[in-house]
Amino acid sequence: MRNGAIVLSLVLIATLATGCAMSVNPLVGVLYSDDVVGGLTATPNAQGPKVGEAMQKMILGVSYGDGSIEAAAANGGITKIKTVDLKVKNVLGVYMETTTIVTGE
Question: 19-26: long-range contacts at Cβ-Cβ below 8 A with a sequence spacing of 24 or more?
Fold first, then answer.
């Protein structure tokens, strides 16, 4: 019985420690991440000089903003997308910023 309680406690702690502000790529720390960048996709289009960004934020589980690829491309005046990256800032799973960065022509 004692081992079962220990295992259950560890599972509960691991579940609670993951928080609700998680991202698959790039790797985001549970306690803190500052401007971690990870690539999402690339296309065969030639690299262009334009860069566009779009940001979405989350505070205490409430998210707002348009961090879509379409918004980032529009903000940079991009019609042919080359790469899409994601930049994430996370503070204790309570505050999170996710910026989509698009390059292209």
Answer: 19/92, 19/93, 20/61, 20/93, 21/58, 21/61, 21/90, 21/93, 21/94, 21/95, 21/96, 22/93, 23/86, 23/88, 23/90, 23/96, 23/98, 25/86, 26/86, 26/87, 26/88
Per-residue burial over 20-45, b if 16 or more Cβ lie within 10 Å, else e, is: ebeeeebebeeeebeebeeeeeeeee
**Taking the model in full, what pTM does it have?**
0.66
pLDDT at 32: 65
